[in-house]
Amino acid sequence: MEIYLAQPRGFCAGVVRAIEIVERALERYGAPVYVRHEIVHNRHVVETLKSKGAIFVEELSEVPDHAMTVFSAHGVARTVEEEAEARGLPVLDATCPLVAKVHNQGKRYVAKGRTVILIGHAGHPEVDGTIGQVPGPIHIVQSIADVAALTIPVDEPVAYITQTTLSVDDTRDIISALQAKFSDIQGPDTRDICYATQNRQSAVRDLSRLVDVILVVGAANSSNSNRLREIGTEVGVASYLIADGSELNPEWLRGARTVGITAGASAPEVLVDDVIETLRRIGPVSVSVLPGREETIEFRLPAELTAV
Ligand code: SF4
Fold it and tell me: Which phi and psi (to 5°) does residue 117 adopt?
């Protein structure tokens, strides 16, 4: 069986930074370090950090007084920041700078008197964080039907922002529907969809031209991983999202000569290796990496962790 690996795949700069913040905090301040929400949506990453002394909680009320606290890469609402400030908790913010950029854009639109529409998935932590950072009513849409259902007057000044991990194509269609509906609308086109999401989506399209089956390594609650699987399916290749090799069903490979593997932005490469090893146990494999876009972007760590 021939295996093709998408390029780029796996960790993005925001995830690398978030994990490093927890690791450095453990080194510098000692265990335990409390992390609000899964630092990134990957069980393997979370378990590894737990074994080093991180404690994961969903609410700040579960964090003891004075304990070092990390906010996850998805960002948090202003009320969470305020709660931490009121309790005097020492906080390291691992919010991805690209998510923070969307928060700032939303704030700027509200300051200009615009009603903000957020294109994103209701209930995702990034969306909850963005809603809680933008000081004004915010409307969520995740489909063209949602745009049609918006009851905002069509001549009201509006602006849109987007979740960072959406499908570029779906988002473009939703933006077109918004532009067709509202006469005074501003927004960043699809630029809010982060570079890592866009690159991984292009790479999975390239992969889909070569393979019979696509395996996306990533967590079921990872937004960008789900989009990768959807793109594979949309272009007509049987595509499956798996956390690691243990979730691979050999039935999926029946009749397949070529298998493509990619990984969501929060999935470590060891899990890709695990999937390859699982395939190797089924039969002989050859592995090639597709040419793709090189990513060199790096985000700076918070100053508290770099000061000597
Ligand atoms: S997927 Fe994009 S927005 Fe999310 S953490 Fe990675 S770089 Fe940041």
Answer: -115, 125
- Write down the pTM of the prediction: 0.96
The ligand 1 atom nearest the CA atom of 13: 7
Instruction: Answer yes or no: is the C-beta of 99 below 6 A from any ligand 1 atom.
Output: yes
Phi and psi (nearest 5°) for 193? -65, 125
Helix (H) or strand (E) holding 194: none
The continuous run of DSSP H or E covering 289 comes out as: strand 286-289
85 is catalytic: no
Marked catalytic residue, from 27, 126, 156, 294 = 126
pLDDT tens-digit map of 103-122 = 999 999 999 999 999 999 99
Closest to 197 (Cα-Cα) out of 152, 240, 163: 163
247 Cα to the center of ligand 1, angstroms: 25
Helix H or strand E segment including 163: none
